[in-house]
């Protein structure tokens, strides 16, 4: 297995254990992370996002597969299942990840998933009816950013 594939595996194994610090150890100091909820986080911000998510996880499980990597880039597929803390609704989020590496660390991590599908699960009928609207998706992003700022201030 390529060392960068092992790094991805290590990242997701730490996530399975809800060990945010071990996940962050896989990242370079200047890592850039993005997904549909957090469009761009850099460095400590990205690391704190994982610390926040792992510390608040409820009824959490994660599976991952399809890890591929070479010297500069990689990818993986993962599925997180959990209770969304704000509504208590159960979510199964199917995610495709792309990575870039430098000096044995992840320097870029981009997760791709369907935000409308996520909002339907997390928010029920409101998410089904309104979750595809840019206004609602921006509200989801604003709330997530606010929660990350609060967490990081601790």
TrEMBL record:
Gene3D superfamilies: 3.10.450.50
SUPFAM superfamilies listed in its UniProt record: NTF2-like
Pfam families: SnoaL_2
UniProt superkingdom: Bacteria
Domain SnoaL-like stretches: 8-109
InterPro entries according to UniProt: NTF2-like_dom_sf, SnoaL-like
Name of the protein described by the UniProt record: Nuclear transport factor 2 family protein
């Amino acid at each position: 297995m390529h060392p960068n594939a092992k790094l991805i595996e290590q990242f997701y194994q730490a996530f399975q254990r809800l060990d945010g610090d071990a996940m962050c150890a896989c990242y370079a100091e200047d890592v850039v992370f993005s997904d549909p909820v957090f469009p761009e986080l850099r460095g400590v911000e990205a690391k704190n996002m994982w610390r926040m998510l792992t510390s608040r996880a409820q009824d959490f499980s994660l599976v991952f597969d399809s890890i591929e990597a070479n010297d500069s880039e990689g990818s993986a597929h993962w599925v997180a299942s959990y209770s969304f803390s704000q509504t208590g609704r159960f979510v199964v989020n199917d995610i495709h990840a792309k990575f870039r590496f430098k000096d044995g660390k992840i320097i870029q991590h981009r997760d791709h998933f369907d935000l409308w599908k996520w909002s339907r699960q997390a928010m029920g009928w409101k998410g089904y009816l309104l979750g595809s609207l840019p206004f609602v998706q921006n509200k989801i992003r604003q709330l997530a950013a606010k929660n990350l700022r609060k967490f990081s201030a601790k």
